[in-house]
Specification:
The protein has 193 residues and is mainly α. The chain contains 2 helices and no strands.
C-alpha cells in the first residue's frame, strides 16, 4: 500500500529528522521576520494616513493662502522624519533577521553535518557490501560457466588418459588386426588378380 518500505534505515531517519528540525526553525525565523515587516508596513500606512488626515484638516481650516503653504510645509517635515524612521526600522529588521538566520544555522549545522556524515558512511558501507556481494555472485557465475569447460577438459583428459592406458591394448588389437586387415587386403588383391 505504501510506496516506501516501513522500516527505514536509522541513519536516514536521523538525518531527515535533523533536516526537518533545521528547516522548521529556519521557516519560523523567516516568518517571524516577515510578520515584523508586515506589522511595520501597517504601522507606516496608519501613521501616514493620520498625518494626511491632520494635514488635510489644517489645510481646510486655513483662512488665508499664506497660512496654507505654511501648514503644508509644517506637515511635510514630520512625514519625512517618519519615512526616515521607517527606513531605519526596516534596516534594523533586516539585520535582525540575518542574525537570527545565522543563529539558527549555527545551532543546527553541527547536528545536520553529523547526521549527514553518518548517512554517508552508512551508504558507503552498504554500497561496499553490495559491491562485494555482486562481485561474489559474478565470480560464482563465472566459476559455474567455466566448470562445464573444465569438466569437459577434465573429461577429455580422463578420456585421453583412458585411451593412453587402454590405447596400448587397442594398439595391440589394431596391430593384431593389421595383419588380419593386411591379410584381408592381400586376399582381396589376390582375388582381383
Amino acid at each position: 500500500m505504501f510506496p516506501f518500505p516501513q522500516s527505514l534505515n536509522p541513519a536516514v531517519r536521523t538525518h531527515v529528522d535533523a533536516q526537518t528540525a533545521f528547516l522548521n526553525d529556519m521557516s519560523k525565523s523567516l516568518f517571524h521576520s516577515f510578520q515584523q515587516m508586515c506589522d511595520l508596513n501597517i504601522q507606516l500606512v496608519q501613521t501616514m494616513l493620520e498625518e494626511t488626515t491632520l494635514a488635510s484638516k489644517q489645510v481646510m481650516s486655513v483662512d488665508r493662502q499664506s497660512e496654507l503653504l505654511s501648514a503644508a510645509s509644517a506637515r511635510a517635515q514630520p512625514a519625512s522624519d517618519k519615512l526616515r524612521a521607517y527606513q531605519q526600522h526596516l534596516t534594523r529588521l533586516a539585520a535582525d533577521a540575518q542574525v537570527e538566520l545565522a543563529r539558527v544555522t549555527e545551532q543546527h549545522i553541527q547536528n545536520t553535518s553529523r547526521t549527514a556524515r553518518a548517512l554517508a558512511d552508512e551508504v558507503a558501507r552498504d554500497a561496499t557490501e553490495q559491491t562485494e556481494r555482486g562481485l561474489r555472485a559474478q565470480q560464482e557465475t563465472v566459476r559455474q560457466f567455466s566448470d562445464p569447460f573444465k569438466r569437459t577438459a577434465d573429461g577429455a583428459d580422463a578420456q585421453a588418459h583412458q585411451q593412453s592406458q587402454g590405447g596400448n591394448g587397442s594398439e595391440q588389437h589394431i596391430q593384431a588386426g593389421q595383419p588380419q586387415t593386411g591379410n584381408a587386403q592381400s586376399q582381396r588383391g589376390a582375388a582381383a588378380h
